[in-house]
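Quick log. Single chain, no ligands specified.
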Amino acid sequence: MRLAGQCGAPPPSGMRYALMILLLLTAPALADSPVTQKQAQINGMLDALKGATSEESAAALEAHLTELWLNAGTPAVTLLMSRGLRELRAGDNSSAIEDFGDAVTLQPNLAEGYRQLAIARYAAGDTKGAIEALALAVQHEPRDFLAFKTLTDISEARQDWKAAYEAWQKVLAIDPKTPGAEQRLKHLQQQAFGQET
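-> predicted structure:
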């Protein structure tokens, strides 16, 4: 959420301002039990992911975790996340950045909010801002394999092969059976360090 007078940003429009005030006023009352129950479920699934015995079981756990993370916020934050995702799919990166930014303002510990903000910033050409948002995502959820996958993708697109290799190693430490894990690791290692002799 941009604040009036901060970095020269204009104040939010009347309707957006009213919506943000409503969300800010209702968020604390809605933030208690559902979020903590979801977090306990997420922690259990992350433990299961580390012990997954096949790529198929890992893929199923990844999909379920992705869904849980997207809906881990309060109802107000989940609404902002859904809207941001729609805007991102439509190519409206600036609106997506604003909505994901509002989501993490309302719920600053929501790692998935920072990851989606990173994706939107990267799509808008702000690589530095994207990497900063990913750093916040893993600060709030150190086992956020999706954040490390996103960092791998960004680093690979920039041909920063060592950073991509290191980020992918982080993915494998959390999610050893992620589909295609070993092949991608070999590819990144080859790009970063050259052919094995």
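The first helix runs from residue 14 to 30.
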